[in-house]
From TrEMBL:
The record marks R30 as: Transition state stabilizer. It is an enzyme of class 2 (transferase). InterPro entries: Galactokinase, Galactokinase_bac, Galactokinase_CS, GalKase_N, GHMP_kinase_C_dom, GHMP_kinase_C_sf, GHMP_kinase_N_dom, GHMP_knse_ATP-bd_CS. It holds the Pfam family GHMP_kinases_N. It comes from Peribacillus muralis. Residues 96-185 form the GHMP kinase N-terminal domain. This is Galactokinase. GO terms for biological process: galactose metabolic process. Substrate binds at E36, H37, T38, D39, Y227. Keywords: ATP-binding, Carbohydrate metabolism, Cytoplasm, Galactose metabolism, Kinase, Magnesium, Metal-binding, Nucleotide-binding, Transferase.
Length: 390
């Protein structure tokens, strides 16, 4: 998106003269290569930031008002509130994400001296599971940090973003999305230990391959409540295992330890949820190794196993994502494919030979339309940096 266009849209919406200085920022979305529903289980994830995301233009005000406007929610119009009254309000819709971030930053780092006007415009498909909400949270966090020179460490901002999601919005998500959005690095995956927050960047040497993002366009109905349900199922399974094992999280278990102790979980559903978490965690470690060794074929195989586990044991895929992924597997040139993100709709990703991308899109697209009745959208992913000033 062109910076000058963004600035002139901002000036128009807020009736601000062209001569006044403004600040512009970009915050990405994310895909997760592997390591799904492992973050809140104390495990590993391997996401990357993408070059689609959310742009923000900001100007400080002289009073304590905040006015925010999103081009993507133009129907909602301008939303206005005070720095001194930052409560969740359903009618404020998307603005609750920045509002929550302002609130927690003020609670921890002191009151901001003045409010601001902010124009937001994004090119991430909404509700597609590419973390448009984490993108907004981190956008707001980085803007406040830089425009008000607060000097907050980036990882602290990531944690505050998660707190907004958990405590302000009410989704018990882990830390992966805010971390990927805030810490992204061009052409790199991020291997993160969600228990210790130790991480390393893993260069994505995928040779003549592309990562294709496929949006199922299936609305993520009830996704938040089902997400919270999966999380509590894992916590329940953990408590049952802890009656005998000295572990902090499911992420502490090897596959063998799980198999030897799974009898402690006397419920089939809980057992399958825990099995996914344990096996997915170990797959993520193997995936990092294969990436480092340039062994894409093993990497692709792990992606496929990850999807199967989410279909069978975690039960979060659904007919739309299964149709996309199974059709992706059948295409020549596909190295691996899986759903990405929280599930219950949203996106899949596929690692595809660059020469086969066009036919991949045609074949998978047509098959999907025929079976599901509406279209999927395809994007060729570029892996970019985390939230930054532009
Ligand atoms: C969502 C959550 F926000 C993440 O924390 C993570 O749990 C993911 O689903 C599943 O891996 O994106």
């Amino acid at each position: 998106m062109d910076k000058n266009t963004l600035i002139s849209e901002f000036q128009q919406v807020f009736s601000i003269e062209a001569s006044q200085a403004v600040h512009t920022f970009f915050s990405p979305g994310r895909i997760n290569l592997i390591g799904e529903h492992t973050d809140y289980n104390g495990g590993y994830v391997l996401p990357c930031a993408i070059t689609y995301g959310t742009y923000g233009v900001v100007k400080r005000r002289e009073d304590r008002r905040v006015r925010v406007y999103s081009k993507n929610f133009a129907n909602i119009g301008m939303i206005e509130f005070s720095l001194d009254l930052l409560e969740f309000a359903a009618e404020d819709n998307w603005a609750n994400y920045p509002k929550g971030m302002i609130r927690y930053i003020q609670e921890r780092y002191g009151s901001l001296p003045v409010g601001f006007d902010m124009y937001v415009s994004g090119n991430l498909p909404n509700g597609a599971g590419l973390s448009s909400s984490a993108s907004l949270e981190m956008l707001m966090g980085v803007i406040l940090n830089e425009v008000y020179a607060l000097g907050i460490d980036r990882i602290e901002l990531v944690k505050l973003g998660q707190k907004v999601e958990n405590d302000f919005i009410g989704v018990n998500s882990g830390i992966m999305d805010q971390f990927a959005v805030g810490m992204g690095k061009v052409n790199c995956g991020m291997f993160l230990d969600c228990q210790t927050l130790e991480y390393e960047y893993a260069p994505l040497d995928i040779g003549g391959h592309k990562i294709i993002i496929i949006n199922s366009n299936k609305r993520r109905e009830l996704a938040d409540s089902k997400y919270n349900e999966r999380r509590s199922e894992c916590e329940h399974a953990l408590r049952l295992l802890q009656r005998k094992l000295d572990i902090q999280s499911l992420g502490d278990l090897t596959e063998e330890e799980f198999e030897a102790n799974q009898f402690l979980i006397d419920d089939d559903v809980l057992k399958r949820r825990a099995k996914h978490a344990v096996y997915e965690n170990n797959r993520t470690k193997k995936a990092l190794k294969s990436l480092k060794e340039g062994d894409l074929s093993t990497f692709g195989h792990l992606m496929n196993e990850s999807h199967l586990s989410m279909r069978k044991d975690y039960e979060i895929t659904g007919i739309e994502l299964d149709t996309l992924v199974e059709s992706a597997w059948a295409q020549p040139g596909t190295v691996g494919a899986r759903m990405t993100g929280g599930g219950f709709g949203g996106c899949a990703i596929a690692l595809v030979d660059a020469n086969e991308v066009d036919s991949f899109i045609t074949e998978v697209g047509e098959g999907y339309k025929q079976k599901i009745g509406y279209e999927a959208d395809f994007y060729v992913a570029s892996i970019g940096d985390g939230t930054k000033r532009i």
